[in-house]
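This protein record is not my work; I was only asked to verify it. Would you go through it and say whether the fold makes sense for this chain? Here is the record exactly as it was handed to me.
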Amino acid sequence: MAEREPNAQQRADFMNLEVPEYAYMFGFLQADGHLYQGTGRKGRLSVELNIRDVDLLYRFKYLTPYNSSVTERVRSTNFAESQHSATWSLCSMEARSTLNQLGLPYGRKSKKITPPRVNFSRRDYLRGIIDADGSVGYTGQGTPFVSLATTSTAIGAYLCFYAKKVTGAQRLIKRNTRDGIYNIGYDKEAAQKLVAELYYPGCLSLGRKQVKADSIASWSRPADMRIVSQRRWTASEDQLLLQLGDATVAAEKLARTETSCRMRLWRLGNCRMLMPSDQ
């Protein structure tokens, strides 16, 4: 079969990241796609997902004005005797070059990816990143959460920046010592606000995550669940706390909990190096 050749307008429109569907698709490809560079004009882009998510791959195929294919296979893995998956593959050198120029690297890419350097639909892009490398749902205690695991400093920092604007919740990223991954999470009302922003009605997304996002919209905090204060300690509060030297008295004067004052006193008294989140 002859290769599908897009016209000039289709070439211009492909991967216009101001279009929500392409912004989402690009974010997903950065996180979960694999761009291989062969010799000459050879090479391919591929995304493999569990068969339950095959609908998304067909949406990618529909959005791409170049020849591409969706295939299925069943194989044994370390995690399951029989794993049924689907793979979307795109070989066009022109399409691959477009994606590469936008910031989808060839080969191993997890630490190298960054948000696009062109205008793009931000919430759709981040939804693509989270659909590929994140989680949306409920904790064991029944509270909503949204999280992202990434090795890219730029992606982690961008999510924190965007989420703070939407939710007011501040996160300072730090790689975990075991595998060097940033694990960034939001829960309860912060998660609810962020999910409402990212997973809006009619958006392109993984169906199973959209279902969870829709259910999170109806969550409300139980009456017996207390709200933990996120209030930061100031230099003047630290000074007064040290002058008083008594957590019970300080709690009353500073309108803080006794536990919070006691822990702060311990940190200051032991000359603990304060982290940015403590200041």
